[in-house]
Amino acid sequence: MIDQILIGVIIFGALVLFVWEKWRYDIVAMMALLIAAILGLVPSSEVFSGFGNPAVITVAAVLVISHALWRSGVVDELAVTMKRVGDNPFSQMIALTALTTFCSAFISNTGTMAIMIPVALQLSRSGAGHASRVLMPMAFGSLLGGTITMIGTPPNIIIADLRREALGEAYGIFDFTPVGLTLAIVGLVFMWIFSRFLVPAKQSRDMSTSPYDVSSYLTELYVPPETSLVGETLYELESRVQENFSVVALKRDKKLITAPPRYQRIRAEDVLIIEADTETMQEIIDVTGLELNAEEEIDDRFLISDEIQVIEGIVGQDSRLIGRSASDMRLRHRFGVNVLAVARHGQAGKPKLANIRFKPGDVLLLQGDKEILGDVFRRFGCFPLAQRSMRIGGEKKIFLPLGIFATAIGLSAFGILSVPVAFTLAAGAMVLTNVMPVRELYENVDWPIIILLGATIPLGSALERSGAADSIAQGALMVSSGAPAAIGIGLLMLVTLLLSNIVNNAAAAVLMAPIALSMASTLEASPDPFLMTVAVGAALPFMTPIGHQSNILVMGPGGYVFGDYWKLGLPLTVVIMAVAIPVILWVWPLAG
């Protein structure tokens, strides 16, 4: 009994710290594991056994393959076809959510979203629709797509491996498809019909449809003494550039002139605060000779590079930038990277840009050497948006990675090789064929997820070994005593869904799976419906932005706030539960 209380306190404490977000989730999970080991709840021989678990290896391999497919342009080519769907906002939403859902069945949710967000923003402009109306359904569609195959989301991989431990045979790659595909279709249809009423339309102050439109970015441009623009008026500046933009303020010495008149003459060393999109900003710089306003000298090695690029990206929920500014991080001095603009929840950040403290979901516009920018994004936990990314302009290899990926799926689907072996071989083949450079192999594994899995798997085993999982299962069965088995399944799914909305979905799967197995054992029923219930519940956190990275990725571009998610997420969760329980029991009956 003491062991049950101790492991319960450790796991509950870890959950509190996950929600608090004072420390990153992988650090919390590792500390929880070490405390459990010190207290003797996890045998010393098993403390690090989780890192050798096939589920961990499979997740790492899938992350590598996903990046290789993204880098090769496979998903990008699919995204380009979306531009042919026309200007009708409803048609655009159907096409975007359907494609996002399909791609997420085979490629990581976040990778798919990074490709699709810029496409959605561009289509939203052409269709005169609000980007916010489509971005949240796309994010939820990516989660639904992950339930379709075993490799679609880490919870499915974890559940498949736990079944191997419990029954001696893991789930196959398409064993999740009957349930997952049904839920994906139902979820998509629900969003197509009702999202227009449940997703708020967010507008910036200039009625633009996204933070990437004209006048979405505020950027400081310095007037060097040698430019021909000195002595001209703002009207003459505007006449030089064909595209629309606005000079919203002018800084002269210590004076700030807001909304300067068009006859205002420009002096040397003025700083103009320009509101424009990225392409127009580049044209202004090229035509006028104005310079990006930098407070520090950029190292020579960045100035001489032929690979200087502008990249848009989103601050992730675990980013090291959160709560800090560009000045704090000394991005210019340390990396030669300029923060050109910041857009927050659909609104452009206000000057002074260097002092804006970043929040999850902020959209950053960075300039620098493409390799350095790639390192900065990875180092600080940000997601580069495609169409501005390092891959654009590079050689595309579409058929080779698709062939490797299809081969891995075939080998695992027909039982020739196990999923971990097949996908590890595929990841290696991507590197050997130079689809993905060796230097990017380890850089694109989400190591915090790997650490989280490796640490929580032994904790899940301790939960089962101590009898705590059985006690929780007994409690759930007492609550649903006398009711049909579907009630117990529903209770299990409800708890898993709530948990996955506040902690990492992989951790939710690891912690709830032993409870599911205990419930099945107590009822002398097949464990399959209970494991599938946990897989579905862990994979679909719709109600909060922190439930999944796909949700946080759309927060900035869509202009959402925390409370916007439950408006669509709660009814969608209810619908998914209502459909999932009978479908699971039909596909995976209790009698096994």
UniProtKB/TrEMBL annotation:
Keywords: Membrane, Repeat, Transmembrane, Transmembrane helix, Transport. It is found in: Membrane. GO terms for cellular component: plasma membrane. The keyword Transmembrane applies. GO terms for biological process: potassium ion transport. The chain crosses the membrane at residues 5-21, 27-44, 51-70, 90-123, 135-159, 179-199, 398-425, 445-463, 475-499, 505-523, 530-548, 568-588. One of its GO terms (molecular function) is monoatomic cation transmembrane transporter activity. PROSITE patterns: RCK_C (PS51202). Residues 205-290, 298-383 form the RCK C-terminal domain. Pfam families: CitMHS, TrkA_C. It comes from the Bacteria. It is a multi-pass membrane protein. This is Potassium transporter TrkA. It comes from Pseudidiomarina salinarum.
